[in-house]
Input
Amino acid sequence: MAASKPRLSMGDRLLVNLVGTLGPIVVRLLGASWRVRVANPELLESVRERSSGIVFAFWHGQLLPLEYIYRGLNVQVLSSWHRDGEMSARLMTALGYGVVRGSPSRGSARGLMRMLAKAVEGLDLAITPDGPRGPARTVKRGIFYIAEKSGSPIVPVGVAASPARRLSSWDGFVVPLPFSRVAVVYGDPIAPDPAAPFDEKAADLARCLDALTEEAERIARGL
Output
């Protein structure tokens, strides 16, 4: 039996509507001022030649710059039914993303299967392997399940900005300031490997994302 959609309080509904209306405007205005540099674009082009769909992986705290940079490309993202997920869904839809609904506490299997269906269709997915609630920079199983069942490669991405504000949230959410330098760094694609132990795959992906983030930080600071 399908889980029912949780009801939001009046205050939460007002907040969701406010974010859904003003959020896309703020992101577009802020992002338009950034100076964006993409490193290793040839890696992505090479994957595109061999695969119809890609699973992009990056840490949850790096979400905001990517929301702007990849707007309008119908990349598929997972969002919960709860207040924060509803705000995210409204924002991402307005920015031209496909939103798949699911939740870490309700409907998680359904959300995972819907994301898998999108990957099988050949669409690109964006997955934060430590989201939506952490622990920060700890890889969970879902990204490997989707990649292995769909045959889609995982492309790790590191993101950084300077100057930027880091929020005191569980993920250290990064907010690039106006006119910031924003760096996006692609890593080598990771082929699906169902035979490899999860702990090994998770550790390798975490190390890769951390290394790409460090490289992005050097680029953003102009080092």
User: Anything to note?
Assistant: The longest strand covers residues 154-166. The mean pLDDT is 90. Strands lie at 35-39, 55-57, 76-79, 98-101, 125-127, 154-166, 174-186.
